[in-house]
Design goal:
The complex is a heterodimer of chains A (298) and B (430). Helix content of chain A is 71%, strand content 3%. Chain A has 298 residues and is mainly α. In chain A, helix 4 crosses helix 7 (161-186) and helix 10 (216-231) runs antiparallel to helix 13. Chain B is globular and about 85 Å long. The chains are: A mainly alpha (298), B alpha+beta (430). Chains A and B meet through loops of A and helix 3 and helix 17 of B.
């Protein structure tokens, strides 16, 4: 049996290291891990927020969830939002990153323009877009009318509200994926492209056989982050539509918020939150499993 | 090392002392959203607080919170044990607080005083014979209409529509269309966006007038049943469907009805005059507008929502209840009762709160002011919201289905049936 002898100096270093990370770990446990478990416990109770006391109800909250039409509406909207937002965000982000990876005059300016919506306060930009989208007094419909194009109810229409929010979200966050892809593209050695060019590969072949495979880690990161962000969309919907019209843009996080802070149903909100967390975790694990296998290096 | 340690201890003790002394004894804490509304309101109330301190030596520490955040902040305060002594809330929130016994009823002598000064209509605010709040901002919904537009289309501006039939005919006549056939000016501004509860508030006049109700009986804190899945409820919801698709006298896609009215994109809408008249004065000074009772169903009566925001109540968790009620009593003084409505919205010449005290209504300024004369007329038709702990959810459910029916996503019959099922399930909860 091997016995590792730890010198007093090394021991001191370890202690110092643990002491340095201790505050953040303690805070993480208090504000992240503990609430997570407490939230789970809450799902089996009926909690009175004013009296800070609860009664045990077993699986009642979960049974109620199964019959809750509004929950399934929120789930449907969340999935729809994610399924549209994520692929478009990744494709567009990658496309723009590829274009802005090429040297041309004004490239830095263009990169800044694309990234700027991401760093400006989301609440402010969402409020501006809410005005832009207004069917009667908004700029978008005014321009469309001028060009004799059909106008739209945008955020006011049941069938157009979610799409309008997605368009805004794409505009707001495309810079984020662009920057990450750009960073990923910088890590691909130029010699691979040179070698491919010498061998007569086309641009498309270079992209397919060099860029994409070597970009897989970055792609995985963007996919996971974007999926999590899409599942947890809240701010822009809260500002722009509050989940309306008639639940057309109601998503899981907003539903959880309403249950807790409008209807004071904390236990039931905790139940929805647990389901939401589980779904997000499941999707993330699937993505990691599927794409993680396809990592490649040359 | 020992010296630094001692200094650290002394500094900590001093900090704790200063924190603890931030709210000195004899100070009551009041949470309100009033200042977020208007500078004139803030000035008026600040004067009241300073006068109270000058006369009694007792301070009122006021915390201003935006309306949308106030209920949540109060909830967090009660949960954390940091709730104020007095809260100035929207009366429709009261059932949630009553359910958890968080509001203190007025002592009997103060209640007697309240009853002696209140305009008779405000006695509807008593719950099971007890008084819990002193209302200040009183909402009474009425039909706001543009008299200039009435004249323009040949309608008598002094003869607003009485019945739904007249209302529909007026709205149709007042509507304008573009060359593409789309509505460019609504005869009636429909509220369909935003919180479903807000949509229901603006349509209760029709529901009640037709003979339906949200919850039956309306004065039970717990339990009850939905009272809208019937012929009356159908007629009330169907009224807007007919105006949207048959008459085409209203439409989606316009700004909020208040905004549309100010911008002359709508000829009529339903709202409380208190929230709107000051806007006309500022944003549409040439507006010649009228206020009338809400149109009634053919065999129904005129009905108007009576709500109060803000309404002041003492929290049951307060350890300064005596002081808190003392301040409430101060607000009932005749000079304060006169001051508030005269000076709120001071920048807009005082189209402010309708007075709570009946004696103020006979004061020359109010008795001759057309806005107040009309408001007093509206009190004849006043009806309060159900006092039910699940009221917020009932509003949300009913409002969602009603708007679905207006969008023709489902039929009115189906909307009412589904809403009834969900509302009854909610009302059956503890």
């Amino acid at each position: 049996m091997k016995v590792k002898i730890v010198s007093p100096l090394e021991k001191k270093r370890w202690i110092a290291a643990y002491l340095f990370i201790a505050p953040i770990v303690i805070l993480f446990v208090i504000f992240r891990i503990y609430p997570l478990f407490y939230n789970f416990v809450l799902t089996f109770m009926k909690w009175n927020v004013f009296k800070s006391e609860g009664t045990w109800v077993g699986l009642n909250n979960y049974i109620k969830l199964i019959h809750d039409e509004t929950f399934f509406c929120a789930l449907k909207n969340t999935l729809l939002y994610t399924v549209i937002f994520v692929p478009v965000q990744i494709t567009a982000g990658l496309g723009i990153a590829l274009l802005l990876n090429v040297k041309f005059p004004g490239r830095t300016f263009c990169r800044t323009i694309f990234f700027m919506p991401y760093i400006v306060t989301l609440i402010a930009t969402a409020a501006i877009w809410r005005w832009l989208y207004h069917p009667a007094s908004g700029l978008i419909n005014a321009v469309l009318e001028r060009l004799n194009l059909p106008t739209c109810l945008w955020l006011h229409g049941i069938h157009t509200a979610l799409g309008s929010v997605i368009i805004y979200s794409l505009w707001q966050s495309i810079g984020y994926s662009m920057i990450i892809f750009l960073a990923g593209l910088q890590t691909i050695p130029q010699r691979y492209y040179e070698a491919a060019e010498i061998d007569g590969a086309s641009k498309f072949q270079s992209f397919t056989f060099i860029t994409l495979p070597l970009l897989t880690p970055t792609l995985l990161l963007v996919l996971v982050m974007t999926s999590i962000l899409a599942f947890g969309v809240f701010d822009q919907i809260y500002v722009m539509t509050q989940g309306g019209p008639i639940h057309a843009t109601l998503v899981l996080v907003l539903y959880t918020y309403k249950l807790a802070f409008t209807f004071l149903k904390f236990s039931y909100a905790a139940t929805v939150a647990v389901v939401f967390f589980s779904l997000t975790l499941l999707v993330t694990i699937i993505e990691l499993k599927l794409l993680g296998k396809r990592r490649m290096t040359y | 090392m020992r010296k630094e340690f001692m200094i650290g201890v002394i500094v900590s003790i001093l900090m704790v002392f200063f924190v603890c002394s931030a709210v000195p004894a004899g100070t009551i804490e009041l949470w309100t959203d009033e200042a977020s509304m208007d500078r004139g309101v803030e000035r008026s109330w600040n004067w009241i607080y300073s006068e109270y301190e000058r006369k009694t030596g007792e301070k009122v520490k006021v915390v201003y919170v935006p309306y949308d955040e106030l209920e949540k902040k109060l909830m967090a305060g009660f949960a954390a044990g940091t709730a104020p002594d007095i809260m100035a809330i929207d009366r429709s929130w009261l059932p949630s607080f009553l359910k958890n016994e968080l509001v203190e009823p007025f002592p009997s002598d103060l209640q007697k005083k309240w009853e002696s000064i209140a305009l008779p209509v405000f006695k509807k605010f008593k719950i099971k014979g007890k008084v819990y709040t002193l209302p200040y901002g009183i909402d009474l919904y009425g039909l706001n209409y543009n008299k200039n537009m009435f004249r323009e289309v040949g309608l008598d501006p002094n003869d607003p529509p009485e019945t739904w039939k007249e209302f529909r005919a007026c709205a149709k006549k007042l509507t304008k269309y573009g060359t593409d056939g789309k509505v460019t000016r609504m005869g009636f501004g429909i509220r369909y966006l935003g919180h479903p509860g807000g949509v229901v508030h603006k349509h209760l006049w029709a529901i009640w007038s037709a003979g339906a109700s949200l919850v039956e009986p309306p004065d039970v804190l717990r339990g009850g049943k939905a009272g809208f899945n019937n012929e009356a409820g159908f007629a009330a919801v169907d009224l807007m469907v007919k105006m949207l698709y048959e008459d085409r006298s209203t439409a989606f896609g316009f700004p909020d009805p208040r905004q549309a009215f100010v911008e002359k994109l709508g000829a009529m809408f339903i709202c409380c005059p208190r929230c709107t008249t000051w806007r006309y004065f500022k944003e549409a000074p040439d507006m010649d507008y009228g206020i009338a009772p809400n149109p009634r169903a053919e065999r129904g009566e005129h009905v108007t929502n009576l709500n109060a925001h803000p309404t002041l109540c003492v929290t049951s968790t307060s350890d300064k209840k005596v002081l808190a009620f003392k301040f409430i009593e101060y607000l009932m003084r005749p000079e304060i009762q006169l001051y508030i409505p005269l000076t709120t919205n001071i920048d807009k010449l005082g189209f402010g709160y309708p007075p709570f005290s009946k004696s103020i209504w006979t004061h020359g300024w109010f008795a001759s002011n057309p806005y107040y004369i009309k408001t007093l007329e509206l009190t004849k038709y006043a009806r309060i919201y159900p006092v039910n702990v699940h009221l917020a959810e009932v509003f949300e459910i009913f409002g969602s289905y009603m708007v679905k029916a207006w969008h023709k996503e489902i039929s009115v019959k189906e909307a009412l049936a589904k809403a009834e099922k969900e509302v009854n399930a909610v009302l059956a909860e503890e």
